[in-house]
Amino acid sequence: MRLKYYLQNKVVHISMYIVLMGLIQFMLYMFKVPSPLMISILILMLTFIILEVTYDYNRKKDFFNEFLENLDQLDKKYLITEIIKKPNFIEGKIIYESLQDINKNIYEEIEQYKNSVSDFKEYIEMWIHEVKIPIASSVLILHNNKPDTVKKVQLQINRIESYVEQVLYYVRSKNAEKDYLIKQCNLKEIINSVVRKNKDILISKHIAINVEDVSESILSDSKWLEFIINQIISNSIKYSKDESPKISFRSESKEGKIILHIEDNGLGINKSDLPRVFNKSFTGENGRGNSSSTGMGLYLCKKLCNKIGHFIEVNSEKNIFTRVSITFNCDEYYKDVR
Description:
The chain is an alpha+beta fold. Helix content is 60%, strand content 13%. It folds into 2 domains: 3-107, no CATH class; 179-337, 2-Layer Sandwich (Heat Shock Protein 90).
């Protein structure tokens, strides 16, 4: 708060003080008060006014400077009332109490919004679990009948199940709570589980799977990681080439971390598209030629990896390969998230 702005705001009061001093001096003159006494009274009045203005300016300056400084440092501006002190001047008290009322109203609105989102999340998760039951039953029925037509229907049901699962993890990725549990997982078992889940479409497209030198033990949430790897494999299948398609898995230890590489020899990704592959709904050049592309798979992989402390990146060369690498942290991170 600058003195110039304060004085501009107090110009009426200061003008009234000057007029009042002039009137008092005029009355003293009319009553023939000696000049030395008149000057003394004038100096006394000026001293009082200067002290009053200085005190008022300093307390308001301290409050508003602290207010603006704290407000500038806060990410969530509505929390300002939690850190500022109640001022001792009337304008500041009105501002403070008004902010308290506004803040209370905001908290109530946020709480209602949280409850609404929580109810919606619970409903979606319940719906997903319910709809997966008839899907699983249909898969079981079809599994016992293997004509070509039935196989095609089963592939479509598997696609539906994949999209339903995608919705489930999309909802979970938006939730601030920890739906996950970081613990020791067998990476090879998770990979094998995902491969088994996709075995029908892998066989139908003649895609070879190669699992080599995969570390057995990593720290992660097994279900979340299974979903992430499944999304990556789904992309590899979707953008595979007709000639000798394959998907390879391997891991390496580097600087105390474990890195899983999932690589295919499919269509690859344009260099210009690589920086945006994790963007929501981004399908790129390959996706524009594929009606089943949603642009949500890698977006969700990135979101979920961020939540559980993994790092994911994509490297690719057009028509040669695409490699997705997931880096797993070690004990230090586990201690934090546990």
